[in-house]
Amino acid sequence: MYTTTTCTYVTEEILLHETILYIIWCLGLTARIADIFSPRYPYVLPDASFGELRRIVREQRVRMLPVVADEKKMKLLGIIRRGALLLVTSTRVEITAKDLVEEPSVVFLPSEDVTTAARNMLRADEWYAPVIDDEERYIGVLGLDDVIRYALDNYREKLQKPVSGIMETKVVYVEPDTPIYKVWQMMLSRRLAALPVIKSGKIIGVVAEHDLIMHGFTRPYLESPSGHRRGPTVGEVMSTPAVTVEPDVPIAEVASLMVERDIGRIYVTDENGILQGVVDRSDVVAAWLRELGLKPL
Fold first, then answer.
1. How is residue 178 annotated by DSSP?
2. pTM for the whole structure
């Protein structure tokens, strides 16, 4: 059974936040998840093959796949993360969705409000969460991109501060000649889904989990000494060009680029293309919540 709320002790800070949420709700300034979630988000059955999972992730560019028991009852069994496909130690035919499924950190009902859901997703460090009905049937997914789209449509005026105020300046990066196995190790150890590619201080591309899956890499190859010797390097698999903005660009413009291009992070550079920082979807959502008077985390 999935629990959609978390019990905790009451503090003055929690009471203040709940009061703000109540006022926002009473004024009609927030929506319910039912108003913004994605009901057509793909899902898989327990017997979906490893190859089928990789195909869906490649073609539909999703970070997470819900797993349902069957297409009649649609009971949610759990999720498969995109990164889990790179952790598989074998590509044998018998590996299926049920072997990779895990319990989601957060699950929502369509009646829950968007601001509370957004805060819970940031606290759990999740960009996507399944949405179920009262009988635990899967009905769709709420993504931070849905929240950003909602914020742009209804609160664009609150996202006019420069992006420099919310960007992360300590950016982990790789170079074009960095071997792919090292990229994979960095992604695992630092829990990163993408890394900028830097040459002479300038960003020339991005290498992401999706790029590794697109090129068919699996764990045995990434951990094989012979694979290390053969390559390839980042320069051979990275996506180009990287989407960048300058530090004085409003947060709203960055948020619009994320929605329009369906990308999770945007890099900030100076006028010469030198990397200054990075902003991802969670940064934008956190900035929006702060403008509403809510503490994101």
1. S
2. 0.86
